[in-house]
Amino acid sequence: MSSLHRRHLAVSPDWLALYYKDPLEITHGEGRHVWDSDGRRYLDFFGGILTTMTAHALSEVTKAVSEQAGRIIHSSTLYLNRPMVELAERIATLSGIPDARVFFTTSGTEANDTALLLATAYRRSNQILAMRNSYHGRSFSAVAITGNSAWSPTSLSPLQTLYVHGGVRTRGPYAHLGDADFIAACVADLEDLLGHTREPAALIAEPIQGVGGFTSPPDGLYAAFRRVLDRHGVLWISDEVQTGWGRSGEHFWGWQAHGENGPPDILTFAKGIGNGMSIGGVVARADVMNCLDANSISTFGGSPVTMAAGLANLSYLLEHDLQGNARRVGGLLIERLRAVGAAAECVREVRGRGLMIGIELVKPGTDEADPQAAAAVLEAAREGGLLIGKGGGHHTSVLRIAPPLSLTIPEAEEGAEIMAEALRSVG
To answer: What is the pTM of this model?
Structure first.
C-alpha cells in the first residue's frame, strides 16, 4: 500500500470508493492520455467519469482559465458576470427550449436538485416519476429519485418517487418485445401508474442511463411518454449530465432521439461542458424557471473562471465538430468491441452510441451478471495501459467506455485491442 493510499484511508469516509486493488494517482494528462505517479502512461477511456470531454490539457481551455484567473477568480451571482451571461446565451440557444433561462451550479447533482425544486414548486407536488436503473446524483433529493440500489444509501426521502419501465431495453419484463411493442407496453405502464396516484410534478429521465451501464430505450420512448405527460400537465426533465454535448454522436442532446413532441421542459447538464472544471446547470422555459417566490443565488455556480473554461471548451467542441468525431470514431470503436465481445463467452452485450459504450458481462452460459469479472477486466485493462469505468443495474457488471471526444482512430483501435486482451485474461 502506498503512503498516499494510507493517508487517504485515514481521513476519508469508508464509502468513498477507489478503483483498483492498488489505487492510481494520476499526476498529469495530455490529449487522450494520463500519467501516474510512477511515470506510466495510460490511454484514458473514462475521462474522469465522462468529464474530461474534449482532451486533457487542452490549450484553449487552460489559457482561458489562466487569463480569467489573472483578472478575477470569484464574484458570486450577486454581480453581473460577463462570461456567465455569454455561456448562458449559447446554452439557451443550443438547448432547443423556447424562451429558455439558464441557472449555473457546481455539479450535476446540484443541477438535478435545482430541477426538482423547480418542478415541485411549479406543480405544487412532491411526487416524482423516475426510471428504473437510473442515477441522478448523491444529494438527499437526488438519491431519493435514483432507481439503482448500489447508489441509494437511504430510503428516507423528501419526495414520493414512482418508478417507470423503459430505461433498459434488453432486460426486464418487456425485453422480449420488438421496439414498437416495447414502447407501447411502457406507455401503457405509465398510463396505468398515473391512474393510481396523485398528479406528479415531473418525470426525470436520462436519455442514456450512465451509471446504470449505458442502457437506453428505443428512440421515441420519451416522445411517446410526453404525449401522456402533457395530458396530465406533468413536466419532463431530461438529465443530460452524461449524454449532452454530442457524446452520443447522433445528437447534441440525448433528448433529441425522443424529440418528436418537442424539447423537455427542463434540461440539466454538467460534466463535459467544463472539461474538468466544476460546472453544472439547469435550462428551463421561463415560466418554470421563474416560478420560485423566494430569493435564490449561487455563491460558486457561474464562477468567472469556470465560465471562461466552459466558453472555450464549447467553442472548441463546435469548431472541431467533436460530435461528428464521436459518431465516426465511436462507430468504429463499437464495431471493434462487438467483434471482441463475440469471441468472449462472458460478454452478454456491447451497446452504446458514439463515444458512450457499455460492455455487459455475465457468467458464461447464463444471463447472470458477473461483477467479479467486471472488476477483473478493469484491473487487466489497467495493466494493459487502458483506464475504463464500471457500472450496471442490479450488479456492477458493465464496463463503461467514454473517452474524450477528440479520440483518434489509432487510439480507438489500440484501446479495443487492450480490451480484447483484458477480456481474454479473465476467460
So the answer is: 0.95
pLDDT of residue 426: 85
* Cβ atoms of residues 109 and 220 within 8 Å: no
Average pLDDT of span 209-214: 95
Cα–Cα distance measured from residue 393 to residue 69, given in angstroms and rounded to the nearest whole number: 41
Alpha-carbon distance of 229 to 128, in angstroms, equals: 12
Assign 3-class secondary structure to the chain. Answer: CCHHHHHHHHHCCCCCCCCCCCCCCEEEEEECEEEECCCCEEEECCHHHHCCCCCECCHHHHHHHHHHHHHCCCCCCCCCCHHHHHHHHHHHHHHCCCCEEEEEECCHHHHHHHHHHHHHHHHCCCEEEEECCCCCCCCHHHHHCCCCHHHCCCCCCCCEEEEECCCCCCCCCCCCCCHHHHHHHHHHHHHHHHCCCCCCCEEEECCCECCCCCECCCCCHHHHHHHHHHHHCCEEEEECCCCCCCCCCCCCCHHHHHHHHCCCCEEEECHHHHECECCEEEEEEHHHHCCCCCCCCCCCCCCHHHHHHHHHHHHHHHHCCHHHHHHHHHHHHHHHHHHHHHCCCCEEEEEEECCEEEEEEECCCCCCECHHHHHHHHHHHHHCCEECEEECCCCCCEEEECCCCCCCHHHHHHHHHHHHHHHHHCC
Residue of higher predicted confidence among 36 and 152? 36
Spell out the residues 6+ positions from residue 318 whose beta carbon is closer than 8 angstroms to its own. none
> Do the beta carbons of residue 214 and residue 357 sit within 8 Å?
yes
Residue 329: C-alpha distances to residues 58, 160, 339, 382, 384 (Å): 19, 42, 16, 22, 21
Distance from chain centroid for Cα 100: 22
CB 102 within 8 A of CB 331: no
